[in-house]
Specification:
By secondary structure, the protein is α+β, with helices and mostly antiparallel strands. It contains 25 helices and eight strands.
Length: about 500
């Protein structure tokens, strides 16, 4: 060390020498300062070399991967896991219990044979006129819904058009109305009185009985114009004594209305001539054909309406059919309680049991997520799901669903990616339908062009005005763009074609 650069120290400072060389003496202060600097330098060096990393939980990765799988892909993933993981088992589906008819059919088939007094057997006998009705043999390309829309177009006022068309779309293939009139009013923004008036006009359409909510109302609608005594009696029987009719209590009804049994039998015949399913004549229409074509795609989610409300069914493997192998589970518990368990065996058992539990939990989480999304769609898109008409499709984003359900947007994206939904009318649509605002306008333009008069095609300006009347404001050039995108001709070319 160069002593010329050392400063003089006060007398009270103790001087320490390094070895036996006096010129290398340092004070206590310098020694302390040097040690502090070295310690500080080492500390900074340690903090600088410390690295921060984020390790993703393998369970999260597996859950995200399972959530993204479609119905068939999930089945393949389960089969692969069953082959690779000995701790995972799949329970066999239980067979449905035998009912009384099945037992009688195998043990005493003669008990199920109809007797000559069987009322249903008599109805099934051929009538005197064996020639079939030409209506039963003729196929039609006109659907029930087209038939009803054509009739309502002539009688519906402008302010009832929206709710009236909504009610038509909510008619099922049997001719029954599947929604309450209050829900139709809420979905279309109409008043309850307007919805009820539109329903009255719908129920006056042919075929008679269409638009009813149940069998009794359907039969009463068909007898609304009763003229003869038998028809009037039949209407009263359906309204107040339907159980007596079903039980064929002719004498009881005869005494109650003070008529001869022959009149009651004639009233019964009037009831039997009614159609319990007025929409059956249109079952071969294009509406069902389109639904059957769409059925070639398997739906991952099925949304149906019942008397108790909406039901959401997730198709695919049921997580309750998967379980941890009993022997692995039993040995896993034994090893967990042992103080000195074999490490190799414990490591093997724990790895496969934990893997099986994680896989089952991921499949269960996939079902819960899809169910929650389906329930949200039934609440926010009930108009479209009930009718299949794109005019009732409301704007929606994945971010909005994620916010409402309290999950991440990427979770909604993975759950709906490349998956399909079967709505209440039987049509199968992609999940993307709910998240593409432009698709609603395109489909509405297609519906308008499909119902236009070929002799007087609609211009783009007129189509834009019709969309505006339905609550969708778009410019003429937007109509032109969507029409060109769907390869539809202009009004001038459609007229010449």
């Amino acid at each position: 060390m160069n002593t010329d650069k050392l400063r003089p120290f006060p007398a009270n400072h103790t001087v320490h020498c390094l070895g036996n060389k006096p010129d290398t003496c340092l004070s206590r202060r310098e020694i302390l300062l040097g040690g502090f600097c070295m310690a500080s330098t080492q500390g900074f060096s340690q903090r600088f070399e410390t690295k921060l990393g984020l390790k993703v939980d393998p369970r999260v990765v597996l859950t995200s991967r399972i959530l993204q799988l479609g119905q068939q892909e999930l089945e393949q993933a389960i089969e692969t896991e069953l082959n690779e993981n000995p701790a995972l088992d799949r329970l066999q589906e239980e067979q449905e219990p035998l009912d009384e008819d099945t037992i009688l059919r195998s043990l005493a088939p003669q008990e199920l044979r109809p007797s000559s007094e069987d009322f249903e057997f008599q109805r099934s006998l051929p009538q005197d006129d064996s020639s079939p009705d030409w209506i039963d043999l003729a196929s039609t390309t006109t659907t029930l819904w087209d038939h009803l829309r054509g009739q309502l177009a002539a009688v519906l006022p402008n302010h009832l058009t929206q709710v009236g068309l909504y009610l038509v779309e909510c008619i099922n293939e049997k001719g029954y109305l599947t929604v309450a009139v209050e829900e139709a009013a809420l979905a279309t923004g109409a008043s309850l009185e307007d919805a009820e008036n539109a329903l009255i006009l719908l129920q006056e359409c042919e075929p008679a009985g269409v638009g009813a909510s149940n069998l009794q109302e359907c039969l009463l609608l068909q007898l609304s114009g009763a003229k003869t005594i038998e028809q009037k009696l039949a209407r009263v029987i359906i309204k107040s004594h339907l159980d007596d009719f079903l039980a064929r209590k002719t004498q009881r009804i005869s005494r109650r209305f003070k008529v001869i049994p022959k009149v009651v039998e004639a009233a019964f015949a009037e009831i039997l001539n009614l159609s319990p399913f007025p929409g059956e004549a249109f079952v071969f229409g294009s509406h069902n054909a389109s639904a059957s074509r769409a059925s070639s795609v398997q739906a991952d989610l099925i949304l149906t309406r019942t008397e108790g409300g909406w039901t959401v069914e997730v198709r695919g493997a049921d997580p309750t059919s998967l379980s941890v192998n009993r022997e692995y589970n039993r040995r896993y518990k034994e090893l967990s309680q042992m103080e000195r368990a074999p490490q190799d065996e414990k490591r093997h058992i724990s790895a496969y049991v934990d893997r099986a539990k994680t896989f089952i939990s991921s499949v269960e989480q996939r079902r819960k997520t899809l169910t929650a999304i389906g329930e949200y769609l039934t609440q926010s898109q009930s108009g479209f799901i009930s009718t299949g008409s794109y005019r009732f499709l409301q704007p929606l984003t994945r971010a909005k669903i994620a916010t409402e359900l309290g999950i991440h947007e990427s979770t909604v994206s993975r759950a709906t990616m490349d998956k399909f939904v079967q709505i209440a009318n039987g049509e199968i649509v992609s999940f993307d339908v709910f998240f593409k605002p432009a698709l609603r306008v395109q489909k509405m333009i297609e519906e308008i062009l499909a119902t236009e008069n070929p002799g007087n095609p609609l211009s783009d300006d007129r189509i834009a005005q019709m969309l505006s009347d339905r609550g969708v404001d778009v410019a003429r050039r937007t109509v032109n763009k969507y029409r060109d995108r769907n390869k539809q001709l202009s009004s001038r070319k459609r007229r010449s074609a």
